[in-house]
Amino acid sequence: MSRKNTREAIVEMADRLFYEHGYEHSSFADIGDAVGISRGNFYYHFRTKDEILEAVIGRRLEQTAALLAQWNQESPAPRERIARFIEILITNQAKIMRHGCPVGTLCGELAKLDHPFLPMANQLFSLFRDWLSRQFVALGRADADVLAMHLLVRSQGVAVLANAFRDEAFVRREVRMACDWLDGELSREPVKIQASATSPTV
Amino acid sequence: MSRKNTREAIVEMADRLFYEHGYEHSSFADIGDAVGISRGNFYYHFRTKDEILEAVIGRRLEQTAALLAQWNQESPAPRERIARFIEILITNQAKIMRHGCPVGTLCGELAKLDHPFLPMANQLFSLFRDWLSRQFVALGRADADVLAMHLLVRSQGVAVLANAFRDEAFVRREVRMACDWLDGELSREPVKIQASATSPTV
DNA sequence: GTCTATATGTAGATAGAC
DNA sequence: GTCTATCTACATATAGAC
């Protein structure tokens, strides 16, 4: 390898292959061949497959945090920031139609495998959830987390169905509907959440 | 096996294991052990793993069609029928929180594997889509398919996030929000869909 | 129809030369 | 750091006895 950092090259390729073909379906041979190294060399950098998965999730967590920080910088207004989240469905449309959402599909696969790194992968969702929630808080919403989760619901649902039906017009339409929903919500007065139960014993 | 039909027992167990642990992660040994037959006997009934997958998808297609027919019988009003679709998120809540939506996770996995039976699995989505669309048509909506797809978006998004966060209150709340959305939609006048493009050359 | 035994391929993982 | 050779485990799949 002429690369300065083989380890980085492995993680980058594993990240891509895990997304495109799934974690379980991506073998050491697949990753090694794609990077251009032997399996033996592979094991010099990672002793187990779980180690690679951990590195990939760590990388995604870093990149997601960086993306959100970038959105914070580029869009001062919370309303615009939320819109950028919704629009990633358009920005990454081609990949989402082919492979689904990188976060949703990884968490789904690890849940099926009952994998110990599932909680770590779920932190990817939490990054978006908490960031969205902060934007709604900044807009004075008491039900910020409810709205944040609802936007996650819409984006995940669109990703799943975009992957199944591969219909660009559908994605654009749902993005428009989500933006309309956002406008509608933000034109209301802030609403207090009702307590979920009155009995203290439950 | 004391069962009358071993083949049926295999398909039934494979259906369950594919749902709980994924298609690729469920081996012949797993299925055979769970049913209580040897691997040799297994191959008497199914020559390849794809054959079992085909049988499982076929079974799900039949059961889904039967479920929709049952809803048609039990609920004459389209509005109530649509509500029943939304409420499967509550009915199957425990399973969805553990393993996600059976349809969404199967289609997602087969998409990753680029599996030839992906189109067949996607028909599961189409069954719900078309059925929902017919209900909205019965309610006089010109944009019936748009509304049907939107309900699929919501249910798939809730399933993905219920699987990740395992939060019952979240599921109940989103179901309520979906019902509210439905009420809001059905209290409007029917809306014509705009043509997606004016140019006939595109 | 069901079983045991076995063939064959491929996965993850290791040892040791260079 | 990188390679080749190798090991072990397990997956799909087959053959043939009962």
From TrEMBL, chains A, B:
Alphabetized InterPro entries for the sequence: Homeodomain-like_sf (IPR009057), HTH_TetR (IPR001647), Tet_transcr_reg_TetR-rel_C_sf (IPR036271)
Highest taxon of source: Bacteria
Which ranges carry the HTH tetR-type domain? Answer: 4-64
Keywords of this entry: DNA-binding, Transcription, Transcription regulation
Q: Which residues bind DNA?
A: 27-46
Protein name, entry field: TetR/AcrR family transcriptional regulator
User: From which source organism is this entry?
Assistant: Ciceribacter sichuanensis
